[in-house]
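Sample intake sheet
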Amino acid sequence: MTVDNSTTTEKTHGVELTEAAALKAKGLLDQEGRDDMHLRIEVHPGGCAGLRYQLFFDDQARDGDLYREFNGMRVAVDWKSAPYLQGAVIDFVDTIEKQGFTIDNPNASGSCACGDSFN
């Protein structure tokens, strides 16, 4: 008899997703009838402060992706973006002044006036 003692562990990242953000993202996917996608956050060069966030739904897995799940919503971060996002919190706000996903990143030393990019 052969026993397989190996375990598959998925590497995780340090991004947090609030309950409000997880429920909103899951609700958007549910509206579209999609259960094959996850939320992906990436950091790319750009914007007036040097770096820009990209937050989108993705159905692709990439080499080196890191994953965590929050209230049924799976969140992917690529290995290059992970150091920039360690400790970041993604939230969803819905007020009379603002509606949308927000990112509170303790690694950002500054941002542009429009809030679209950071450094």
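Comment: DSSP finds two helices and eight strands in the chain. Strands lie at 16-17, 38-45, 51-58, 66-70, 73-77, 89-94, 99-104, 117-118.
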